[in-house]
Amino acid sequence: MLTLNINDRPVDVDVDPAMPLLWVLRDVLGLTGTKYGCGAALCGACTVQLNGQATRSCVLPVSAVAGQRITTIEGLTGPVALAVQNAWIQGNVVQCGYCQGGQVLAAVTLLTANPRPTDADIDAAMGGNVCRCATYYRIRAALHAAARTLPEASA
Amino acid sequence: MKRSTTSRREFLRLTTLGGAGLALGGVAFGAAEGGAIFTMPFLRIDPDNTVTVFSKHAEMGQGVWTGLSTLVADELDADWSQIRAESSPTGPLAYGNLAWDPSGRLQATGGSTSIFNSWLQLRAAGATARAMLVSAAAARWVVPPAEITVTAGVVAHAASGRRATFGELAGAAGRLPVPDAVVTLKAAHAFTLIGREGLPRLDGPAKTRGREPYGIDQRLPGLKIAVLARPPRFGSTLKSVDASAAKAIKGVVDVVAIDRGVAVLADNTWAALRGRDALRIEWDETAAETRGSGALLAEFRRLARSDEALDVVQRGAVDAALAAATTRVEAEFEFPYLAHAPLEPLSATCVLSADRCEIWAGSQLQSGDVLNAAAVTGLRPDQILLHTLASGGSFGRRANPASDFIRETVATAKATGGRYPVKLIWTREDDLQGGMYRPMNLHRIEAGLDDRGQLTALRQRIVGQAITLGTPFAALTVKNGVDVMATGGSAAEQYAIPNCHVTWTNPQVGVPVLWWRSIEHTHMAFSKEVLMDELAKSTGQDPLAFRLALLKDNPRATAVLTLVAAKSGWGMPLPAGVGRGLALQESSGTVVAQVAEVRLVDGALRVDRVTCALDCGVAVNPDVIRAQMEGSIGFGLGAALRNEITLTDGRVDQRNFDSYPPLRMPDMPQRIDVHIVPSTNPPTGVGEPGVPPIAPAVANALFALTGKPVRKLPLQGNGDMPNFPSA
Ligand code: FES
Ligand code: FES
Hints:
The structure holds two protein chains of two kinds. Chain A is an alpha+beta fold. Chain A contains five helices and five strands; from the N terminus they run E-E-H-E-E-E-H-H-H-H. Chain B is an alpha+beta fold. Chain B folds into three domains: about 5-210, 2-Layer Sandwich (Aldehyde Oxidoreductase, domain 4), CATH 3.30.365.10; about 215-285 and about 345-425, Aldehyde oxidase/xanthine dehydrogenase, molybdopterin binding domain (Aldehyde Oxidoreductase, domain 4); about 295-335 and about 435-705, 2-Layer Sandwich (Aldehyde Oxidoreductase, domain 4). Chain B has 19 helices and 31 strands. The relative contact order of chain B is 0.11.
């Protein structure tokens, strides 16, 4: 039995310790906002925040994260998240939307550390999050728009 | 805004439009269960004042829930904030795609036909509902219906000062008879939502917050997850399987053989995947396709020089015109197989009992999926209940006449006796290696110009697998044995060239193929538009002027080209090291032109800016259209830069996004401008037509930069060796 801290709540799970966090979230806990896209740390669809850092849950054995702070798209809160999600909605960013939970988590991680990212910062921070609908142009614009609504000092 | 109900409306006789889909009275009207009190095939108005639009088309990212809802809401005079959308049920005639089958029997989303075929139907649905709300208000207030206005979701009678919401009138309206089949639709100048800027997409909030349920997210009590071991080569079949090691893995509950492979069922995906890895399988490779990409290319080259071909276009006298030409250009173009690779891998969920089969999936072809599920289960089509969920991308993959992933799921449920609900998922590896690709193609072209530099002759030999031959779609898409979906959109069809001979050879290859966003236009536009630049250059002409001369009788294409030229600064000087290229294609009834600006950075291709112009008729949702163009440019650019599915001895070489690298944020052009030609014509497609021009526009920009034409995709190649020469 492992105790996980997911979205600020303790959750006990009885699973193969080698099972990637992605499948624990989706199949065991029903948190399906975290998506499967490649299973190999190549696409970012499975992004969660681990202690505030955007992390690929598809290659993360669940035993490695017991007791650490895991935030999924369902539990994402706070002023940066609000700014990002509002900018996403106002910018009509989503198409199929399948990548967007991961994109939002990556964007929130970026803006939390760097409230005024340059285009190069965005390329570096978001390059691991694939969008097959290629909404990148709007993601970039929405990231800048969200940044403009946040205080310049780290949020 | 006040408006009389008739004077600003066009009179439309629905019965004259044909099509069961417009016969609103035929399907499911009146009071429904569960508190919804005013329902129609395409919308429901609830007492809480929400209007739910039922989308007969699959939402895959293209914005169709928003688009169809815009049509309904405008004629209903609803307020956008009260609109919701969800997938319609599967089955009733009302939900057929009228572009593909006017009788309404074919529920399908594809070919960028959703808005086009729904344009009158969904507006009529909104107008009918509005008329019923007005009747209900007139009866309640005892006033003439003509004195009632409807504005932004408020029904009002000015003289008496009475007002009501839709929700307040829904119950009474739902008890009224549906008006006879005559309804008036708005004239274009009266639109309030159609064409409006700033409408938020209906699916934006849920998708931004991770709350949209996709097919792969389906959960049910007792659900088992299945993955399927498929043969390593196309055409192989199962010889024997030893599942003992797989069954020993904790969480694995069952292993069954079905026609397409061996399914492992488990309590969770992780156990299912480990179970599949532990299977020991022998395949019978007697019928397998064992050729590699090199052998296929050699065969395609041979066929392009043989007489084994069918005529696609035959006009004038090509041999004589080529013989008389002052300038001749010969070129051969190569295109790889491409995978759709939607980010949500294929998946379906099935609950099977003796007399019912319930399926949840992202589907672009519900009618075919129902028939295939019926065939697998032995049930009648009306015993199959298919729920369409949002798709995490599709690009054509989920419209497949063989229903591969649905059939596998249903067959697995059947093979396990319906003991548990089954969700079968494809991994990314399954997706990239599982076939149904954009066909590999070879085009061989000879073109001739006269002494004034006019294009007088074109001979084109197309070698590429048929897509719809032998499927139920052939009745629509195969003419004289020629599959339009393998051959359409050539220069002979899109430019005024007096002497043309286009032929097609359907090579016999065991690799399954399918339509891939824009279908034939993805390769046909490339050879056509790259050729145009070669021809222009060979005779010292400007590529824009050269095209315009061939489009004298095509005012739409001329307008689009002229607009893209003006907005892109065509002809203006560029900084050193930057090349600019142009391309044009008409597909799905929409004309799109794009101008790309490219640079080479350390030998790698970088696309800085794309200007796009299009004519898609009435722009129903301008921002969705812009988004589709941006996304299509990225989708097409990603494929053009790096994507190819190759085979070694019949085995697919690519496995995941490392060997099939998708476009990423740093690859996306920094600047994209989309310009929509104002139009009052009925709307045409926008989900696909933005894809075909981008690859040739980029190739032509490279040509302008390096002076050497590009005739092979992908541009960047898969490894270090680009398929384009340096300057
Ligand atoms: S699913 Fe984890 S990175 Fe793709
Ligand atoms: S919105 Fe479809 S994958 Fe990103």
